[in-house]
Fold this sequence. Notes:
By secondary structure, this protein is an alpha/beta fold.
Amino acid sequence: xxxxxxxxxxxxxxxxxxxxxxxxxxxxxxxxxxxxxxxxxxxxxxxxxxxxxxxxxxxxxxxxxxxxxxxxxxxxxxxxxxxxxxxxxxxxxxxxxxxxxxxxxxxxxxxxxxxxxxxxxxxxxxxxxxxxxxxxxxxxxxxxxxxxxxxxxxxxxxxxxxxxxxxxxxxxxxxxxxxxxxxxxxxxxxxxxxxxxxxxxxxxxxxxxxxxxxxxxxxxxxxxxxxxxxxx
Length: 232
């Protein structure tokens, strides 16, 4: 696990920012301290380090397809490839930023055969799972090469947990309101944070199913960044 995240270049980030749709997810912008676009680009770059020519890519719980959109902007391979965008919410898929195939499904019961995809990826979604192990088992089941994801966790440090709890409950909704968003729409993030386990708990599950090549915790350990090969 000595590998490091592959950083997206300024030019690659510019490609994403210059064409970013107005519908791009603002909620993740606030909770990631304005780093969501960069982190998605870093995730794509790191995935491509271990799978240079993917032919079939699955975006799990992809919402409107922000990660898929970033993948298309960052990936410069000449080989043809296909992205399938999946999400549990039909309205999200209807508002998708990409034109690729879409599948309505839950991330803990993916309707795909084993080892179907070269890349299985996800961003800012897995923390919504009722049982994270079920989701990790599924994404590794359908991947034949690499998995990569970013999601919200919880620091093992109680001091950081308290600080982040205050930020997410009181400060972030206020910042969202100043930016023109409805503060009540962001309060659910605090409740998700309160119920998710600590990062050390998550990591034990990841290691059970994934040969981890990159593991990082970011933003006061509020998020985990994982890339690796499915075991078995």
